[in-house]
Amino acid sequence: MESANNFDLWTGAGRAMSPRQPKSEEETDAMNFRPLHDRVLVKRIEAEEKTAGGIIIPDSAKEKPQEGEVVAAGTGLRSDDGKITPLDVKAGDKILFGKWSGTEVKVDGQDLIIMKESDILGIVG
To answer: Where in this protein does the record put region Disordered (predicted)?
Structure first.
């Protein structure tokens, strides 16, 4: 039998949670997600809609861009001896990543990608 405090993840049955209300304006702007360890949260930088010759590329012919901006980064990877190695990227960095890198997620209504730092090919600029 299910108690009133339990929430069944499989069926969605259980006590309904009320949405958390932000406490301040700064908190509404802050992302409600913090990547762990060597993971980074990336927002894709959309590709140009036109070619250099002026041809408009339809959405169906576009490939997903492999360039993005780091939105948030984890603290780093913990080694066997317990020391944390900080990441080479930080929030705001423009990066290139592989075509099949990461997992697409929706955070605060934005389509983002979470990936390991090793999926990043390099920092642009």
So the answer is: 1-32
